[in-house]
Amino acid sequence: MFVLGIDSSTQSTKAVVADAETGRIVAEGKAHHPAGTEVDPWAWWTAAQEAVAHAAAGAPGKIEAVSVAGQQHGMVALDGAGNPVRDALLWNDTRSAPQARALIDAHGAATLAERTGLVPVASFTLTKLAWLAQNEPHHADRVDRVLLPHDWLTWLFAGRPERACTDRGDASGTGYYAPATGRWLPDLLREAMGGRTPRLPDVLGPAESAGRASGFAPLEGALLGAGTGDNMAGALGIGAGPGDVVVSLGTSGTAFAVADHPCADPSGLVAGFCDATGRYLPLVCTLNAARVLSGTASMLGTDLAGLDRLALEAAPGAGGLSLLPYLEGERTPDLPDATGTLTGLRGTNMTPENLARAAVEGMLCGLADGVEALRAVGVEVRRVLLIGGASESAAVRAVAPSLFGVPVEIPEATEYVALGAAKQAAWAISGSTTPPDWELRSQPCPAANIYQGEAVRHTYRTAREQIHGF
Ligand SMILES: Nc1ncnc2c1ncn2[C@@H]1O[C@H](COP(=O)(O)OP(=O)(O)O)[C@@H](O)[C@H]1O
Ligand SMILES: O=C(CO)[C@@H](O)[C@H](O)COP(=O)(O)O
């Protein structure tokens, strides 16, 4: 039997067809998304259809079940006819930072962390809806229901039924859901939307079904899983266990672990999400990961392989250069208006090699701080599993072990978010109480000198303190 998993993330949609027994991937498809932090949700539907059609065409048999994983938090606000009232605001759109601050001022960070698992930052859907109500009331007035990117796609694959649905994982990234009780918090939504009360999707359990696919030939009649957020699907795809911290280097950088209890971090560094198995997913997210490397490569007039070569020719510490890579502003730490800074320049260290190395080290230092923040809320860190596009980088693989200070492993090269979605689909159709136990193989990165890593992180922290005051 074959199942299909979809990863509709920031830069592209990826689809994989897997054998439901073993998890072996037998076919794949991919389609790109438009650039920018506000995107027409129909573009994701077009990309999903293209990627799925390609994957399904390569499948050796019928697709029996499908699930959609998607970039978290994006605001998909629909009118009564089921059409978006405006382009979706993405997780990395920082325009709602003032609304996030106002929510904290009104309720207090600790109270919001206890109620929602989150201290608001511009990424979360609640703040985007508050921005919409305050800045585009004519659009807010037309909102009949609010969905997340994965909910939107699941709803379209289901043929636009009356009820839409989501799952605990993605619901927990909205800011108007209580991870500890599994309930929506309509009072927060109403307040953010200036008294308006849009409809919310039903929250399905991890192996529940969202119905059957209808109206899109390659999937016609397939069972639809609940779907989830891309990070939750990544954890499910990997089968992350105790002691595992997954670090994903996509458009965002994320560090997360599966936990048995909800997390409420009043500092706001760790978001207390739910996972896709009925447990929890404490997570730290930065806005700047893979694009730090591609941006630096362009600046140096080279490609990603060239950046790797340069970075590996420089010594650890980049000759004293440190890059605070806040190219899109930053979420962790909460600096929505920040820009990037290169510190430590001297006549003797201004080389392409050192700049390339500083980019790799700077991107990873933010995530090493994220792993520290997970430790501080009680997460056990025995190894780091690196996934996401930039985990392909040879320089990242060489540098990461010294900065994380624990063994770093690379799961067999594949799309773990789409695979996690496929695993959820296989689970939904199996009727089992536990997800399929697909074998995970990973390769260790060569061990590295952790004292050098500590020195690099010290220089990075000092630069941040000098520029941002903490
Ligand atoms: N070898 C590589 N070195 C560095 N970055 C890479 C490499 N291969 C892919 N990437 C980057 O990975 C990113 C895409 O990763 P992905 O995890 O698919 O992102 P997302 O899920 O956010 O759409 C792109 O920015 C791409 O430049
Ligand atoms: O906002 C978050 C997590 O809270 C991001 O991780 C998004 O879910 C987007 O993910 P990628 O496109 O970078 O995979």
Brief rundown of the structure:
By secondary structure, this protein is α/β, with parallel strands linked by helices.
Question: What order do the helices and strands come in, and which of them pair?
Answer:
Elements: E1 2-8, E2 12-19, E3 25-32, E4 38-39, H1 41-57, E5 63-70, E6 76-78, E7 88-89, H2 97-107, H3 109-116, H4 125-135, H5 137-140, E8 145-147, H6 149-157, E9 165-167, H7 168-171, E10 177-178, E11 183-184, H8 186-192, E12 202-204, E13 209-212, E14 223-225, E15 228-229, H9 230-238, E16 244-249, E17 253-256, E18 271-274, E19 280-286, H10 290-299, H11 304-313, E20 322-324, E21 341-343, H12 352-376, E22 383-387, H13 394-404, E23 408-411, H14 416-430, E24 442-444, H15 450-468
Parallel strand pairs: 1-5, 5-14, 5-15, 9-12, 16-22, 22-23
Antiparallel strand pairs: 1-2, 2-3, 4-7, 6-8, 10-11, 13-14, 16-17, 17-19, 18-19, 20-21, 23-24
Helix pairs in contact: 1-6, 2-4, 4-8, 9-14, 10-12, 11-12, 11-13, 12-13, 13-15
Bound molecules: adenosine-5'-diphosphate (ADP) and 5-O-phosphono-D-xylulose.
Catalytic activity: D-xylulose + ATP = D-xylulose 5-phosphate + ADP + H(+)
Active site: 230
GO biological process, one term: xylulose catabolic process
